[in-house]
Amino acid sequence: MMTALDRTGRTTRRAGPGGGPAIETSGLVKTFGETRAVDGIDLTVPAGTVYGVLGPNGAGKTTTVRMLATLLKPDGGEARVFGHDVLHEADTVRGLVSLTGQYASVDEDLTGTENLVLLGRLLGHGKRAARERSGQLLEAFGLSEAAGRQVKNYSGGMRRRIDIAASILNTPDLLFLDEPTTGLDPRSRNQVWEIVRAVVAQGTTVLLTTQYLDEADQLASRIAVIDKGTVIAEGTKGELKASVGGGTVHLRLREAEQREKAAHVLSGVLGVQAALDPDPLALTARVGDGGRGAAEQAGRVLAELAQHGIVVDNFSLGQPSLDEVFLALTDRTTAPRTSAEDRNGRKNQKEAVA
Amino acid sequence: MSAPAPTAPQDAELAPVTAESLSALLISTERPPRPSGWATSMAFGRRAVLKIKHVPEQLFDVTAFPIMMVLMYTYLFGGALAGSPTEYLQGLLPGILVMSIVMITMYTGVAVNIDIDKGVFDRFRTLPIWRPSPMVGYLLGDMLRYAIGSAVMLTVGLIMGFRPEGGVTGVLAGVALLIVFSFCFSWVWTMFGLLLRTEKSVMGVSMMVLFPLTFLSNIFVDPATMPGWLQAFVHNSPVTHLTSAVRGLMAGDWPADEIAWSLGWAGAICVVFGTVTMRLYNRK
Q1: pLDDT given for residue B71 in this prediction
Q2: What is the CATH number of the domain that holds A340?
Q3: TM spans, by residue (chain B) (predicted)?
């Protein structure tokens, strides 16, 4: 293990042997009885980035992470962490990774300090070094005051912190965060995000699973969308959004009577049906194709509306949210069982949503 | 998961994590060399001791339960079986000591099972350490509990009139043999702790095994009064061998055969169930 502590040195090491990816899986499979929880997942996670794995409950996110963290043996396929096979070189992999699971992965009966000292000892620190490191971590995570309390008396946000602190006791090369903010209030969630950013800034690769799209949007540079045990889309945020189409224009008129007319104008300019919001003054429509020319089209919409004497009080142009991307993608995978007619209905519905 | 902590509102006052202090921490870390299996097992053993410190109620099974056993059986059977409770106590106490300590080994399985339910097991299993050390750690902690249990029972016994002829040496030798056996026997429960789904089923299975195993022995009565087929079982039971060995040691003898049998059983149990436990642990 390299001990040079300069930043560049670490970054080079983190990049893995020969600058290879942090994680590489091909055709990864895990079955539980009849269910194929993970059904042939291919992933390539570049080193030094936050990689988001996005999917609904039961999509296979946690199972995938558990296989990569050597907790579960794959039933098929291959997975390598920094070039080391998770099955045959499990011990080497364990030396490189850390896992913060969905449930508190510290001992609830012990105090914050005791937990971190225990881990420090297990990772090979001497008694004094373990105490020192534990104190530093608790301090950095704002837990100094709670250091002597049993973890079972911690709040949700504090638990997450001690959990993550435990995971970075020895700065790992790869950190798995399995739904790190599930059940946290927005404030604690933001703080977890800050921690993740700080960790990745130091060269650690982070694999983040989440069911919250804004979380992936905030943190991840690349995202894989998983549904029913397979990757249904993969790419940068921009690519994923572009793959679904342009953005959405939201309009709020001054007078409700003009809405019908405005909707007509919109469909004329954009070639798509505008959706009427529950708010009698508002309507929305999709603009642009593949993200191109959305602003230009929106400009034309405004000009056209002005020409028709329709007063627009409020206007906004949004990129498709990852939510929309996600719905569109998971929708597509369920499409085969619906008839063509259904699909049309679904399409309209989707537009209405947009 | 436990109910939301009463301290929840504190989140609002929680100091924000500063990126600078965190970065300094992340960068300054030097990975120490891999610790030895002994060091990690001891660290886990220390964890077990800390748990006792935080939840002392869990010592009930090694304090109140054994006291109850000694009192109950001495006065219940003493008069009928040996003429007087005090006479009966001389043979019974080492036996009841064996029974109680062997019985409380099952809590190892319960503890393993509870830990699996919580996420902490996942963390231990992703550490680059000697694989059996979490299990060995439990057992090291349990050895302390067995020692406490033995001390409590012997104290009660001495107060009630137990006068071992082996003296301090004999008694300590007997307790040492018992603790070594129990350490090995506990691997049965680590296996069930990993195998079964709930802590209740672990308890259920343990009782199913422990009741017949401890009662069908020479602890309470002389096996000569039993039917032949039962004698065959009783004479070959590890608990009988252990009881005879502990009795002998405490009475000042050196029952080499029985000691050898006890240690042989202990070794065999350790190898078989230790192997199965580690297989399950790795596969879980």
Answers
A1: 87
A2: 3.30.70
A3: 59-80, 92-114, 135-162, 168-189, 201-221, 259-281
pLDDT for the residue B60? 85
Provide the number of structural domains found in chain A. 2
Q: Which of A31, A74, A28, A61 is nearest to A224 (CA)?
A: A61
CB contact, 8 Å: B255 with chain A?
Answer: no
Which of B226, B218, B208 has the alpha carbon at shortest distance from B242? B218
Q: For position B272, what pLDDT does the model report?
A: 96
Which pTM value belongs to this model?
0.78
Tokens for B189?
A: 């429960």
A to B CB pairs, distance under 8 Å: 178
Asked if A205 and A248 sit in the same domain, the reply is: no
Helix, strand, coil proportions of chain A in percent (round to 5)? 45, 25, 30
The domain containing residue A330 runs over which residues?
244-353
- Interchain CB distance below 8 Å, A105 and B16: no
- Return d(Cα B70, Cα B86) in angstroms, integer: 12
Report chain A's mean pLDDT, rounded to a whole number. 81
A199 and chain B: CB distance < 8 Å anywhere? yes
- What SS3 class is residue A203? coil
Are the C-beta atoms of A42 and A27 separated by less than 8 Å? yes
Residue that the structure tokens 């670490």 belong to: A10
Residue A129 domain-assigned (yes or no): no
> What SS3 class is residue A250?
strand
ipTM of the complex: 0.82
Determine whether B109 is exposed, middle or buried from the number of CB atoms within 10 Å of its CB (0-12, 13-18, 19+): buried
